[in-house]
Amino acid sequence: MRMDKKIFHSTAIALLLALVPVLSAKAEGRLPLTDEEADYANLVTSISKVREPYIKDGYVVFTADKDARFVGIAFDFEDFNTIHPYQKHNTYTDTGEVRNTVFFYALKLTKDMQKIKYRVVIDGLWTLDPTNENKDFDRSTGLLLSIYDATREIPPATEQLKDGTVRFVYEGESGRQVRLGGSFTNWDSWIYEMKEVQPGLYQFELSLPPGIYQYAYFSGVNTIVDTTNPERCYTKDGKTASQITVR
To answer: Pairing state of beta strands 165-171 and 54-56?
Structure first.
């Protein structure tokens, strides 16, 4: 497959122009970084060279050589309909000179991502990932695809299950009484007590209608945010709590 390079270049430029005001404001300290943005910034800082795809901090990192003018990536789980442009990252010497330049794309992993099939676009030409020797012929598309095995141990986390039920998860000291409260209980923390399903792992399943909910865990007089869920919010009284969207 061959695509029009002008389309890709225009897409990349548009994305960069859209991001510049936000990134500039963040860099100047006018807008605080979220935890996820801070983690992503640390991830980008760690990229130093072109190498095979790898997992770091919940992302799969794909890299490409700096000599290309445009690099993009498309995935089978999106039916190859979206081409995600790589970003350019510079590393510097102690004197501030550019040591190396690397194209990269960081894919946020979800629980269902195990084997990732993809193709890359380099200067308008579809091709296999030159950094990844793992490939396979896909009968459904009739294409030779690059494959990355993202099989990994996935720690338990608060999530919405397929039947719409929310499974709340807390990890901490074994033998504690841990309660669940939130906007769905009018912040009454004595309605739902979590069950310790294994030492130090507490869970509670609750059916909730679609909506956005604030919640927290309670043990004794202590209020605890959900460390398995990065989404945060502020309650009406200004306290930090966790937040989940039920769809």
So the answer is: unpaired
**Encoded tokens for 135:** 């490939």
SS3 call for 201: strand
Residue 42, pLDDT > 60, answer: yes
Distance (Å, rounded) from C-alpha 128 to C-alpha 147?
9
57: left (phi over 0), alpha (psi -120 to 50) or beta: left
Structure tokens at 1: 């497959």
Structure tokens at 106: 């960081």
pLDDT score recorded for residue 215: 98
Q: Is 20 exposed, middle or buried (0-12, 13-18, 19+ CB in 10 A)?
A: exposed
Buried b (16+ CB within 10 A) or exposed e, 78-117: eebeebbbbbebeeeeeeeeeeeebbbbbbebeeebeebb
DSSP 52: S
CA 228 to chain centre: 13
